[in-house]
Design goal:
Oligomer: single chain
Largest sheet: 5 strands, mixed
Shape: elongated
Structural class: alpha+beta
Order of helices and strands: HHHHHHHEEHEHEE
Number of strands: 5
Length: 224
């Protein structure tokens, strides 16, 4: 049955307009975005199939281009739309971080990091450079690595902090394995970076580890 044949109260778009986006399931939201399915498969069915296959919205956003384009009912146009909406979400969150105190909006920082790092298949080390009012100046991918590690060079981070004239910085990296538990190497690196940046009077406010289902804060765990 086509979605247009459903009772109006059950159609995702009408449900969103009546109840708000927050009351829709992931499947319903994705179906509105997809707009159409294909012969014998509605947009809701296609959305459900995608989420069952990839396991979550995060994994779907990080899906390989070729594999996703070849998924029945998707194709290059829907892939491009998906990447566009993901990038717009990143930019919208970034704009909010540029306008307000990052330390007063911890959930906003977490949402920004989840969009930028969760689901990546290799380790990425990110720096969020802040001004004296903790407003974001820039979020830079500083180093990329393998499935298990990324080489991080304090000297390069100091140079980047000076380039941005930053007063503070928040570090973050992902664990492709899924666990957000910090390793001993993560702890040692954080202290090394903190000492190096103290020499140029740049404060390290936090270091986040982004796992599959959680984000760990060094500051909240008293590790910084």
């Amino acid at each position: 049955m086509a979605i247009t044949d459903w009772p109006s109260a059950e159609r995702p778009r009408e449900k969103l307009l009546k109840l708000g986006a927050g009351n829709l399931t992931d499947t319903e939201l994705l179906a509105i975005f997809l707009r159409t399915g294909f012969v014998g498969t509605s947009a809701v069915d296609l959305a459900r199939n995608l989420l069952q296959h990839y396991g979550s919205l995060t994994s779907l956003f990080a899906a390989d281009k070729t594999a996703l384009c070849n998924f029945p009912g998707v194709g290059i146009a829907k892939y491009a739309q998906l990447q566009a909406v993901l990038e717009m979400s990143k930019r919208a969150l970034g704009e909010r971080l540029e306008c307000g105190d990052s330390m007063n909006t911890p959930q906003l920082v977490r949402d920004f990091l989840r969009l930028n790092l969760a689901g990546k298949q290799h380790e990425v080390f990110l720096g969020i450079f802040l001004d004296a009012k903790n407003r974001m100046i820039s979020a830079d991918e500083l180093f990329n690595g393998t499935l298990t590690q990324a080489s991080v060079y304090p000297r390069e981070i100091v140079k980047r902090a000076l380039h941005h004239n930053a007063a503070a910085i928040i570090f973050a990296h992902n664990h492709p394995s899924g666990s957000a538990e910090p390793s001993n190497a993560d702890k040692v690196l954080t202290q090394t970076l903190k000492r190096a940046l103290e020499l140029i009077e740049v404060k390290v406010l936090d270091h986040f580890i982004v796992g599959k289902n959680e984000i760990m804060s060094f500051a909240e765990q008293n590790l910084i």
